[in-house]
Amino acid sequence: MPTPLRSLKASPMAGEIRVPGDKSISHRALMLGGLAVGETHIDGLLEGEDVLATAAALRAFGCAVARDGAGAWRVRGLGVGGLHEPDAPLDLGNAGTATRLLMGVAAAHPFTSFFTGDASLRSRPMARVAKPLTDMGARIVARSNCRLPLAVIGSADLLPIVYTLPVASAQVKSAILLAGLHAPGETTVIEPQPTRDHTELMLRHFGAAVRVEALPEGARRVTVTGQPELVAADIVVPADPSSAGFPLVAAAIVPGSAVRCPGIGINPLRSGLLDCLVEMGADLTLENRRIAGGEPVADLVLRHAPLKGVVVPAERAPRMIDEYPVLAVAASCAHGITVMHGLGELRVKESDRLSAIAEGLRAAGVTVAVDGDTLTVEGRGGAPPGGAAIAARLDHRIAMAFLVLGAATAQPMRIDDGSPIETSFPGFAPLMNALGLRIERA
Fold first, then answer.
1. Which end of the chain has a smaller Cβ tally under 10 Å, C or N?
2. What is the pLDDT of residues 167-216, one digit of tens each?
3. Which residues on adjacent β-strands are paired with residue 370?
4. For position 349, what pLDDT does the model report?
5. What gap in Å lies between CA 161 and CA 163, rounded to an integer?
6. CA 222 → CA 188, 198, 404, 435, distances in Å?
7. pLDDT per residue over 139-179, tens digit each?
8. What's the confidence (pLDDT) of residue 351?
9. Contacts of 335 (CB under 8 A, 6+ apart)
């Protein structure tokens, strides 16, 4: 059942919030644990619905996946090429990352795997993943526009390929690399712009040979050597920088606030939002920098300061594609105009996020414009009017972004359904309320 929520103007926010584990790394830790030989122990795993769907899928593939405590999980893997045919369709719920990466895993096994999900996931095109996997020797049978439900008919004799991504996408890159584990020789992905590299880092952590080479104009060549024996390796999952964006922006738009987010992943290929906030004038400090589980992390402290409009270049998009909804919230409260270029990928996320952001901000009294893949937000220089009812479109980030906006608006903001928030940020409302937000059932 839908869970309508509203957020009301907040007093200064203060305190520390421990956001959930990184969703991207959590998915990959489970999958590579399932493809390794031995038992992998994972600490800090995100226990949102998307990641739990990945755990359930791995069980369906024959892996032993168990929870030992809060965020503590173990996976007994079956080795590269050792998964079993699922007895039933794999229901991935709302998890696009899980679906695309597991398609790469399934493509390398000589059986048929069926994928489905919720209404949002069934509406998203999967052709950009299906094309390279088909080139490698798998077969994909799907609905029109390559939408779920679909079947991956795998092969034990995949061919290595050299594939140039038409659009920078860490999910497509990762699906190809995971399939390439099973192909003899080298499988190479050429990406026009660097995307998050969690798959490459974790493949090395489990014993695979991965080579990354810089190319002209910022492109990269990523190569994995096939048919390795992956060995179980423990993983510590850092806190999710995408989730941290919500309390950080809330503090940035509520005068007098100061919020601390410990243990946040600061991988430079995920730090686009932090760069934008600093450029906008946010008082952001990174403390206690360190390495955890092969990933750089730090404690982030943000104290309120006036924000100003900025121009966000298109080449930054791969480093912050999930953070544009909450960046647009910050822009709506800034002094001046913020222009965000290169947002085409937002149209094929959990919802058409570009239109959802624009429509929601307009309803809240903010002047916005969309021109192709560019979003322009005219900041109010303070609190927007608010008082709008927002259709979250089954999209967790749209829901959270507009609840954060409600902390600053003169009138409450409402969303029609907050239940999708559980996919990535379990306990979002009570955790944010502990800082001083006012989120309640509508």
1. N
2. 989 999 999 999 999 999 999 999 999 999 999 999 999 999 999 999 99
3. 375
4. 79
5. 6
6. 6, 12, 37, 42
7. 999 999 999 999 999 999 999 999 999 998 999 999 999 99
8. 79
9. 306, 307, 308, 309, 379, 381
Handedness of CA 244, 197, 424, 317 (dihedral sign): positive
pLDDT score at 94: 92
Residues in CB range of 399: below 8 A, 6 or more apart: 5, 390, 392, 415, 417, 418, 420, 421
Three-class DSSP labels, the chain? CCCCEEEECCCCCEEECCCCECHHHHHHHHHHHHHCEEEEEEECCCCCHHHHHHHHHHHHCCCEEEEEECCEEEEEEECCCCCCCCCCCEECCCCHHHHHHHHHHHCCCCCEEEEECCHHHHCCCCHHHHHHHHHHCCEEEEEHHHEEEEEEECCCCCCCCEEECCCCCHHHHHHHHHHHCCCCCEEEEEECCCCCCHHHHHHHHCCCCEEEEECHHHCEEEEEECCCCCECCCEECCECHHHHHHHHHHHHHCCCCEEEEEEEECCCCCCHHHHHHHHCCCEEEEEEEEEECCEEEEEEEEECCCCECCEECHHHHHHCHHHHHHHHHHHHCCECEEEECCCHHHHHCCCCHHHHHHHHHHHCCCEEEEECCEEEEECCCCCCCECCEECCCCCHHHHHHHHHHCCCCCECEEECCCHHHHHCCCCHHHHHHHHCCEEEEC
Q: What is the mean pLDDT of residues 404-409?
A: 97
Q: Taking the CB of residue 200, how many other CB atoms lie within 10 A of it?
A: 22
38: β partners: 77
pLDDT band at 125 (very low <50, low <70, confident <90, very high): confident
Reply yes or no on whether the pLDDT at 400 is more than 80. Answer: yes
Residues noted as catalytic: 322
Which pLDDT score, from 0 to 100, does residue 350 have? 76
Q: Is 347 left (phi over 0), alpha (psi -120 to 50) or beta?
A: alpha
Tell me the residue type at 278: V
Q: How far apart are CA 352 and CA 358, in angstroms?
A: 10
Query: Mean pLDDT across the stretch 13-21?
Result: 96
The whole-model pTM stands at: 0.92
| Confidence band for 59, pLDDT divided at 50, 70 and 90 | very high
